[in-house]
Amino acid sequence: MKPLSADAAMARAAALCSRSEQAESDILKKLLTWGIAPSLAHGIVERLKQENFLNEERYAHAYVHDKLAYNGWGRVKISYQLKMKGISSSAIDAAMEQIDEESYRDTLMRLLQGKWREVAHREPQLARAAMLRYGASRGFETPLLYDAVDKIVKDVD
């Protein structure tokens, strides 16, 4: 495959950013895989930022919304993944503030109730441990997990 010209790479990256929010690090990786020299790739990323195709705050807000709504991830996992993508702490914090607490807790309860149906037949302590591990693996905070698991187990008794 013939490497892309800088103009073609810019147009392709801009089109990609127009379709969905993208992280700067993801676009940079794509440019490099398209055969763009690293210095040129960084220049394209800067131009995309200047023209507002790339915006880390906007990306963080979209990422938080999507991962909570569609993947059922908690704050811990979402925050970690955003950090791995090179998103600034201030953008992550601002995006996390958008989370509606009631909806967040409802998501956790829905996930744990589904898990409860799988583990209810186990000895109570093992069932609780399985639910706590499951919630932690989804990135929910420990105090919330204990409260939610206690509520589910109590409601069943």
Q: How would you explain this protein's 3D organization?
A:
With 157 residues, the protein is mainly α. The chain folds into 3 domains: 6-50, Arc Repressor Mutant, subunit A; 56-96; 101-156. It has helices spanning 6-19, 24-33, 38-50, 56-71, 75-84, 89-96, 101-119, 124-137, 142-156. The protein is elongated and about 65 Å long.
What's the helix and strand layout?
Elements lengths: L5 H14 L4 H10 L4 H13 L5 H16 L3 H10 L4 H8 L4 H19 L4 H14 L4 H15 L1
Helix pairs in contact: 1-3, 2-3, 4-5, 4-6, 5-6, 7-8, 7-9, 8-9
Q: How is this structure best summarized?
A:
With 157 residues, the protein is mostly helical. The protein has helices at residues 6-19, 24-33, 38-50, 56-71, 75-84, 89-96, 101-119, 124-137, 142-156.
Which structural category do the helix and sheet elements fall into? mainly alpha
Radius of gyration: 21 Å
Number of DSSP helical runs: 9
Percent of residues in helical segments? Answer: over 70%
Mean pLDDT: 95
> How many β strands by DSSP?
0
Shape: elongated
Distance between the termini: 64 Å
Low-pLDDT parts are none
β-strand percent reads under 5%
Secondary-structure element string: HHHHHHHHH
Q: Total domains, how many? A: 3
* Major sheet: none
Q: What keywords describe this structure?
A:
76% helix; 3 domains; 157 residues; elongated; Arc Repressor Mutant, subunit A; 9 helices; mainly alpha; single chain
